[in-house]
Each structure stands twice: as C-alpha cells, then as structure tokens.
C-alpha cells in the first residue's frame, strides 16, 4: 500500500547557522514543523512535533512505497535523523519500506534521454501535467509555522496537504500509464520537452 509523505520544517536551509553545517547535521538542526501523509487505509493525516514517533511507526508499518517529491534528498533522511536522535530506532533502513521519489525519477530519466540531468520544481511539473501549481512555498510555510498564529499554522497545514495532493495525482498519472511532461526551458538550454514514464516503461522524447 502506497503512502504519500511531505514534511515542513520551522527553519530555512539558508539560515546562516544551518547553511554552514554538513548535510546530515543540517537535518539534525532543522526543527520539525509538521508532516502530512495519505494512504488508502487511513486517509489524510497531519502530524505535529510531538507525534514524530507515531509518524515513524505509521510509515514503517505501511508496506510502501513512500512516494515523495525530493524525499530521497530531504524528507526521508530528515525523518531518519529525527527518529534516531529521539531514540525511536537504531536501525532505520531495516524498518523503512521502499521509497519512490518523483523528482529523482525525472532527474535520472532526463539524463538518460537528454544527457543533461534536469532539475524541476514541483510547481513546474504540476502546472505542465495537472494545470495548476502549488498554493505557496516552503519558506512561507516555515514562517507561518513560526508565527504561532493558529490561522497561519492551519494555512501551513493546508499547504503541506496540497503538496501531497499534487504528488499523489502525478504518481497516479504514472500508474495509469501516462507520462509526466517535463517542459522545455530554452533559457536553460533545454530545448526539448521530455516525457517520463515509470522505470519499467520506456521514456521518450517529444520533439
């Protein structure tokens, strides 16, 4: 069973005290704000800082995969660091189900098709494939969470859920046999639109 995940933090990677740290120490320094998950059995759930253990157990008892956007680089290693630091686990990789990162898929397949690895934001891929983008961005969510204002905290939770909804719809598009459109960006010397499919299917280039 698939579980979709997105995590929001209270800090920014560009904060001077965090930017100077190595990556794994950044993950330890960044404060947990909230997370959103979705799976068929439990529906939509929001997880708060005092529920990290519960979040970890929910993810580890779901067969998976854990589907994310940029989860291989952030959400999953961040969650592992938090779980180890809080003494929830000593063997995270043994417990976690497999993961599937849509951003990593696009990076890998674009390099295979176009030689050059392409990095897209979720906003660009959502617009190209779903006709709509994000309702905010991560820095805004961090500011909302840090504000202490219940209305803004609720807005951050809505933003996190909406990101998961976008990832869910993009993943479902792939599962249905459709491709993900990765738009041309001439300003980056990316002159062709790419169409990426699931790994077991052949990805093609749209001229």
Secondary-structure map:
Blueprint lengths: L2 E7 L6 H4 L3 H7 L2 E8 L3 E5 L4 H9 L5 E3 L6 H11 L6 H4 L3 E3 H13 L7 H9 L7 H10 L2 H26 L4 E3 L10 E4 L7 E3 L1
Parallel strand pairs: 1-4, 4-5
Antiparallel strand pairs: 1-2, 2-3, 6-7, 7-8
Helix pairs in contact: 7-9, 8-9
Structure report:
- With 207 residues, the chain is an alpha/beta fold.
- It has a single domain, classed as Nucleotidyltransferase, domain 5 (2-Layer Sandwich), CATH 3.30.420.10.
- It is built from nine helices and eight strands.
- A hairpin with a 7-residue loop joins β7 and β8.
- The C terminus is likely disordered.
Largest sheet: 5 strands, mixed
Total strands = 8
Identify the CATH class: Alpha Beta
CATH architecture: 2-Layer Sandwich
